């Protein structure tokens, strides 16, 4: 008994000793951690729970010249999500709750994920671009950003430890990535974003087993199949839509910048009531919060959209550039056009934020420091919002009226520019069609349908409707031919481009609105005077050097063309009034002769064109422009160098068209394969380009001191290069085989045709004075924007001072203090004699107000004297081509007022407007608003009912 008792006591004592020892160890460890290591672990805990939360700065405001707000910022509610320990643990239940709240309250989840799903299409990428090449590039970028290309690289080159690939290896990876289908991408992300393991409740070992299978797979295809099989199981339990909603959040977290603690947005611009519902439930929604964020807004919607521009997300290709400037490319938006882009550095403001402590749910527990937000600076425009509203409405209503007429039914595009004559300030700049920039800045408004409408229009549907409406014998491919990259080309400019700034970028022939310029040069150079009389003989064929020995070039005056009458004896003012072509043909001929004839004489317009803003020196092409702050194109008036360059630009297209058609002039031959094709070998491409370069280089030698080959020598030099193309082209070999003819005999004919094309046709076109004659009435290569035309008229009627066109008066800070101010800037000057200026103004006044004036019917009853000039500019020199594609002439109209002391100039352009006077009512509506106080005193009743009271939104 004693022995057994002793044994029991011994076991008990041993147990107690062990427990005591363990307790002592625990106590010592606790003392060590809480006393000796307290500071270190406290610091670690504090660092882990500290985050800097950015606060976006509101962009600066954009005002019109009278202080009306055109662009400002408002605060909207966003639902955000932070990736924390607790939010990860309850991610799916939290998302289910949020999705239900959003759905019940009619809110939309933020969706910028380019991998889409629909029951009809299944899984697909939606990049909203027309070019197949661009689509492929964007798809590759999508896959690269999400690790798919790295996954492929690991499978293809498992022994590559450095990670660097040579060009051939990278090409192999990209080609393999292109084979990965949208659904395979989705399945891959389901697994790599842990959605498969989480939603399938896999253990760590089961998840590891999946990873091991993928790692052991011997090919990309085998590995992707493993992901697909896993995803199939998940898709049996959850709908594709539900899985994609989860993925939107997972992907945003993946793509989020790692430079700061920024939650991602689940939903943006939600209603206030929805925000309060979420606020009340935050305790059960780990990681979720509702935040206020400044959002750009344009209170007048479409008003001045082509001036203001719009905002957009930052292109990933520009990531480094903008991150260096402090932008968060995953969330920030920047100006991409108009004033928003041009003055981005002033408008963007400086972000602020706060350093906070958060708990395990991602909730703020303490604010440690605050960095104040600095709003952007304000931009004050020269634009007069009321005048802008009148210009836009007048343009729109005028177009709608013209569309009811058979001759102008395609008048769907146009532009208006109003410029201060003595400062260069732009008071109005309107385009139609237009857009609402709110669509791009306010979350939820930029739908897929809007993106397609703006950037990838349905050309096919439009073409079919257009062909039917106009009764054309054309096809979709005729009107919108396919480019090599798969995109479509609107080669006849028939589609109304919503995002296009016709006012600053739409180059078109000026037609007779160029005649005041021809008048100016003729008067200033003394080849005509205000009293010079020229007899209009109808057909301009009296100079052999212009019309040729056989009078093959013999332009006519409109009067003669219409009814075989002429204007008889006429001076410059009357020639402007009735738009007499013959008078200006003769003036141009005299200028050509005065300048020395030949090549030298072809530059008779050049110096004056530069000084009035209708031209530039090719040697200083980078300086060409009106000076306006937003994007523009800048056309050049006819001169020898610009005409030759323009001819060379289009000669390649003409050459390809002629050779592949199998006929040029009197020469007929087997269609010659000269156009570049994707299937061409590099050697064939090089051979084709060599032939084309030979032709272009020979044309460029015209009028130079180069020892250029004559016709026979040039034809002979072409034979070997043409034979090289023939030997390499399977297409051409097949054509030769079909016709049972010899290559050598065909090369002889093709070479002679190219000799005719190059030496006689294009070559002589470069040096003929017929082109300066044609240019004198605004045809030929003369092409300008409405902005250029308004500026040139301003320059003439103010006496010869060309001002820089500008849209911005000043920049102010948030307190209204001036940061920068922009005064009128003189770019060039011509000393126009008073007599010459008066002759031009009298003629332009007669256009509007005298019997027989080409726009006089549009100005009946208007009490303020004005000047104007109509222009009916052909879309193409061939009327049959113009009619065959449904085009009509441009309706161009320029004007200024008042006559004696001009204050503003107007240019209005209507595409397919048929006649210049069709645009004159737009100018009248503008004058009715601009001179409204004076007109009210005269009890004048405006023709445009809206001229006196346009609606402009006031800032609340």
TrEMBL record:
Classify the protein's membrane topology as the record does: Single-pass membrane protein
**Location in or out of the cell:** Cell membrane; Membrane
* Annotated TM spans: 12-32
Q: Residue ranges of the Penicillin-binding protein transpeptidase domain?
A: 414-618, 775-928
Q: Example GO molecular function term?
A: penicillin binding
The record's annotation in PANTHER family points to: PEPTIDOGLYCAN D,D-TRANSPEPTIDASE (PTHR30627), PEPTIDOGLYCAN D,D-TRANSPEPTIDASE MRDA (PTHR30627:SF2)
Name it. Answer: Penicillin-binding protein
